[in-house]
């Protein structure tokens, strides 16, 4: 019984107190985070999205949904569609074909950082079952929050001298965090932290996970952070990881999980601990020197009162730069037996060097020495209709200079902007090697979670230093996990493989919002001549606007 789920959404700015301090957030239908979409695999989602912002366009990306046959609904401004103007409505209509834990978010400017996000949960189709058992589930959408407005942040990032956004003030769980107090001040040895005095009905009050003893719970955890890499632990409870980015994985047990921006996991916990106690769920920052307190909430065993403080302090986040811990977690993620396997060989290999650079003194990120600057006409229309002046037709480089030292800052940090695309013919197997490098400062290389639109890819492996031809011998072709986001570790590389079976124009970028703003992404155009039925409204701007707005359907 496949059905179409019709939703009507208004996007607007509103006052909200995500971390007990009032601010302006982007909300949907008066809610922050936006409404959770719940559907069954095979359903069609139709979101009639009205832009109620007074002076800005908006688009929404359905993160992890491949948009097979509907590339114009991917919600990427300048890539798959024109931004929706104030007062206008766009119908996002697409099929959710695979069960899993997903989310949606703004993909124009830094609107995701401004709070434009929500959860998208796809259950198995009627008559199907998940390959694991659980009694009930909870949904946890993780994000990070700054007090400075996103406009202020964008101007700082685009200024000379560069002004970095710094670390977040607060981590949020389902849009809720505490800035000026702690739920666990009792356990703190500093007196500067106040114990929170919340009634529970505040916008910043934590959502408590109420559980029954001796049951199995599925925690659906997704991260839409603007910057922070996170680690999550449940005091006194082990977790069994069963899903990653909407794909089943070989179950494995851990004490804590790392989750990077753009990723999602399902973990199972068994409520087999003493039922007269409560337990902390704690989330802390990884990969960057933290200046943000842990996010906390409670696992509350019925019938114990939720106001009973746990017996033990919150689980401690592993040291921020303990990358061995992170790598060990990443290497445990393997596809569940029976999952689709990658082709044995690749047709094309694209190596992408990630560097921090300067353009006329402005700080940028570049891929093979080009910092992405999106054109005003969306690629989907300009490629489909061969509007050659819409963007740079020269293909971007597929590799970088062989003498480049990834362990040192760039010898010549100067670079240029560009908007060229990688043209990918249909039905080819593409390998992408993401190569990390030293940033502008000596001995600094950062984590970058890379997200691909329109596809899942197989993660064939991670390695240290510069990728060499020898490294491909170590690729996992047996049970590599399918994902839509994969991290590159400092001074390392990550190898991905995917098959070009989905006509459209797909962004592939660092999911750290300020890094994308600074140019850290590329664009793949895949069999665009096979795309038919682009709604007029998706192209009503730039050169396609001039050309096509008079006809009814392209
Ligand atoms: O893009 C970034 O800029 C800063 C720093 O490199 C310069 O201030 C930082 O930590 C980033 O991730």
Structure description:
The structure is a single chain. Helix content is 6%, strand content 36%. The chain is mainly beta. It folds into three domains: 4-128, Sandwich (Immunoglobulin-like), CATH 2.60.40; 137-332, Immunoglobulin-like; 348-548, Sandwich (Immunoglobulin-like). It has a six-stranded mixed beta sheet, with no helix packed on it. A six-stranded mixed beta sheet has the order 21-20-25-30-27-28, with no helix packed on it. Strands 11-19-18-13-16 form a five-stranded mixed beta sheet. The mean pLDDT is 97. Ascorbic acid (ASC) binds next to loops. Dimer. It holds the Pfam family Cu-oxidase.
Main sheet summary: 6 strands, mixed
The helix tally amounts to 5
- Name of the CATH first level of the largest domain: Mainly Beta
Number of strands: 32
Strand order, main sheet: write it out. 10-9-12-17-14-15
Short key terms for the protein model shown above:
554 residues, mainly beta, Immunoglobulin-like, 3 domains, 6-stranded mixed sheet, 5 helices, 32 strands, 6% helix, 36% strand, globular, binds ascorbic acid, copper
Summarize the helices and strands and which ones pair or pack:
Blueprint: E1 4-16, E2 23-28, E3 37-40, E4 44-51, E5 60-63, E6 89-95, E7 100-106, E8 117-123, E9 136-145, H1 150-157, E10 170-173, E11 209-211, E12 216-223, E13 229-234, E14 239-244, E15 247-254, E16 256-259, E17 264-270, E18 278-286, E19 295-301, H2 323-332, E20 348-359, E21 362-367, E22 370-372, H3 379-384, E23 416-418, E24 422-424, E25 429-435, E26 448-452, E27 457-464, E28 482-483, E29 485-488, E30 492-499, E31 504-510, H4 513-517, E32 521-526, H5 542-548
The structure holds ascorbic acid.
Subunit structure: Dimer.
Family: Belongs to the multicopper oxidase family.
Enzyme class: oxidoreductase
